[in-house]
Amino acid sequence: MAASKKQRWTWLGGTVVLFVLGIVIGLILQNVWLGLLLALIVSVVWLIATESRKGGNAGVNDESHGIEL
User: Fold this and answer.
1) Which residues of 44-53 are buried (b: 16+ CB within 10 A; e: fewer)?
2) What sections of 1-69 are H helices per DSSP?
3) pLDDT digits 0-9 by tens, 9-64
């Protein structure tokens, strides 16, 4: 139970950091909405990657499902 709360807070903190970086990048590019969109995309990809790693499905070569890079 404690590990899942720690992982949840880690993901939430990382998401906040990514959004702040997105705002900064957006200010540099003079388009805050573009920075937020990029931060949202990176955050979703990061969530998928961490959940895959937690579930033990982090590899790209998975012969049982036909997924191969």
Assistant:
1) eeeeeeeeee
2) 2-28, 32-55
3) 877 788 788 888 888 888 898 998 888 888 888 888 877 777 776 666 656 665 66
Q: How far is CA 11 from the centre of its chain?
A: 8
- Residues 12 and 6: their CA atoms lie apart, in Å, by 10
- Collapsing DSSP states into helix, strand and coil, what is residue 29? coil
* Alpha carbon distance 26, 35 (integer Å): 4
Q: 6 phi and psi, to 5 degrees?
A: -65, -40
Residue 69, pLDDT > 60, answer: no
- Which residues does 59 contact at the CB level (< 8 Å), separation at least 6? none
- What are the tokens at 15? 């998401």
